[in-house]
Amino acid sequence: MGRTGITLTRFIIETQAGYPAATGEFSALLAQIGLAGKLIAHDLRRAGLINILGTTGGTNVQGEAVKKLDEIANETFIKVFQYSGLVCALASEEMEKPVQFPENWPHGKYMLLFDPLDGSSNTDVNMPLGAIFSILRYEGKGGLPSAQELVRKGTEQIAAGYLMYGSSTMLVFTSGQGVHGFTLDPGIGEYLLSHENIRMPARGKVYAVNEGNYHKWPAGTRRYVDYLKESDKATGRPYSSRYSGCLAADVHRMLLGGGIYLYPGETDKPEGKLRLLYEANPLAMVVEQAGGGASTGTMRILEVEPKALHQRVPLLIGSAEDVSLAEAFIRGER
Ligand code: AHM
Ligand code: MG
Q1: Is residue 2 part of a domain?
Q2: Which one of 23, 31, 287, 323 is separated from 250 by 20 to 30 angstroms, measured CA to CA?
Q3: How are strands ordered across the β-sheet holding 190-195?
Q4: How much is the pLDDT for 309?
Q5: Per the domain annotation, does 67 fall within a domain?
Q6: CATH of the domain at 99
Q7: Any ligand 1 atom below 6 A from CB of 119
């Protein structure tokens, strides 16, 4: 049983020595992310009743149709952090440019990059959704960070995690001291420790990929997915296929049970679909901290040198041995 059931705040205070800011700022930052999660979960639970399903009619910087809930989730994060005194700049999938918070400067030394509503195609059909966040520290003395100062390599993240709105709401994070999962108890409005120090199995039995894109993939990726479907008792094949349309939910499954999620590059779109800074990097940090791996197919996600805020990257993420084998297929060794 251990510490199961303790609140998020108590967990951080107890373990504070190992956390990035022993001043309580980091604990406040996570509590604010938790608050954004509670507010969004509250809307999602009533979404069919309060006219927040469907699209706004606009398109975002990625050229994708914006869902009403994308906008609501993004505004919720902004509201929660604007006068928090913690964060000097925010960047999100839904905004072309980062937002600076002069009202939090110079006290707020954190920068937050996030996907406010991951798996937006699930909004109207009552399927799982998530939010993904990456936390950086800004040491600049000269003033608020410029847009380019948020574009950092994954290894520079000081913490990362995701919220998941499934049958329960969860907050899962790492600050480089293991991965811990908290479940929101709606009765008392608190996140309670439910999954301490999550460790991923070295290999899984499940794969998640949008197989409708099979004919767009390069040969190595196709061969790998064909391999997973072959029957072979010794290697636990065929793997089961589970794809929810929500990256955070699929990675959550792999984190707990092992396996591999893929959003590969395509022959005509080698950069893939997912965004490096606020989808791939934070989940890569979480998964590596739990003993798993995250790769572009040819290199470690956390070492990709980013050039732009909304840069895309192919993503293979999951159990360490599954990811290594997928890389071997992509290199043409299998
Ligand atoms: P989103 O952040 O706009 O929702 O896009 C990311 C999502 C992932 O959650 C999911 O795994 C993938 O895109 C689904 O894409 P597709 O519909 O192409 O399979
Ligand atoms: Mg997303």
Answers
A1: no
A2: 31
A3: 99-100, 87-92, 110-118, 129-137, 159-165, 169-174, 179-185, 190-195
A4: 98
A5: yes
A6: 3.30.540.10
A7: yes
- Ligand at minimal distance from the CA of 249 is 1
Is the same domain home to 268 and 182?
no
For a ligand 1 pocket test, name from 61, 95, 118, 278 the mutation site with the most ligand atoms within 8 angstroms of its C-beta: 118
Closest atom of ligand 1 to 122 CA is: 4
- Mean pLDDT confidence for 179-194: 97
Eight-class DSSP state of 331: T
pLDDT per position as a tens digit, 17-54: 655 555 678 889 999 999 999 999 999 999 989 899 99
Query: Residues 232-268: pLDDT tens digits?
Result: 999 999 999 999 999 999 999 999 999 999 999 999 9
Contact 238, 229 (CB under 8 A): yes
For residue 300, list its beta bridge partners.
295
Instruction: Give the number of the ligand closest to the Cα of residue 132.
Output: 2
pTM: 0.97
Q: Which of 218, 235, 323 is nearest to 271 (CA)?
A: 218
Whole-number Å distance, alpha carbon 103 to ligand 1 midpoint, is 34
Which residues lie at CB < 5 A from ion ligand 2?
115, 118
Please name the helix (run of DSSP H) or strand (run of DSSP E) that holds residue 114, with its range, or none: strand 110-118
Q: 168 and 211 in one domain?
A: no
Q: Is residue 41 part of a domain?
A: yes
Q: pLDDT tens for residues 123-159?
A: 999 999 999 999 999 988 789 999 999 999 999 999 9
Q: In which domain, by residue range, is 151 found?
A: 8-195
